[in-house]
Structure formats: C-alpha cells, structure tokens
Amino acid sequence: MRMSDFWRLMDDEFGAAYAHSLARDHVLGALGDRTPMQALESGIKPRETWLALCADMDVPAERWLGKELRSPKKRG
C-alpha cells in the first residue's frame, strides 16, 4: 500500500478533517503506543498502520479495503 492509498482510505472512512486528527492524535497500542503519523514516520508500513487503526476504531472488516473495493461494480 502506498501512502496515497493510506490517505484515501483514511479520508473515505473518517472524512478528511477527522482522518488527519486521528492520524495526529490517536495512540495505537498495537503500534508501540504511537500515533499513526508517528508509526509511519518510524517506518511502519502504511498497510500495517491502516489495519491497526481499523481494528482499534472498530471499523467493520468489510470496509478495510475502502469504498471502491466494497461497492459492487455495476455492469453496463
């Protein structure tokens, strides 16, 4: 997962303003008591950071892949 994917997922799930607040302020025990931003800056991969945040925030597993992959595609 690229950083751009991480931020897209964050914005899709939490909204842009809250996503950035969570990334800056929410401490994740699963990532060594770091915020998502601290985890990313210390070299933890975006996917690992995203999944830890999803688990901690009780995001349903079906939404862990983002909007595009959870919505059925319409055939035209």
The shape, in one word, is: globular
Element-level helix/strand string: HHHHH
Largest sheet: none
Low-pLDDT stretches: none
Count of helical segments?
5
Mean pLDDT rating: 89
Measure the end-to-end span. Answer: 30 Å
Radius of gyration: 13 Å
Description:
This protein is mostly helical. The protein has 5 helices and no strands.
List strands and helices in order, with pairings:
Elements: H1 3-14, H2 16-25, H3 36-41, H4 46-56, H5 67-70
Helix pairs in contact: 1-2
Which descriptors would you attach to this protein?
mainly alpha; single chain; about 80 residues; 5 helices
Q: What's the short story on this structure?
A:
With 76 residues, the protein is mainly alpha-helical.
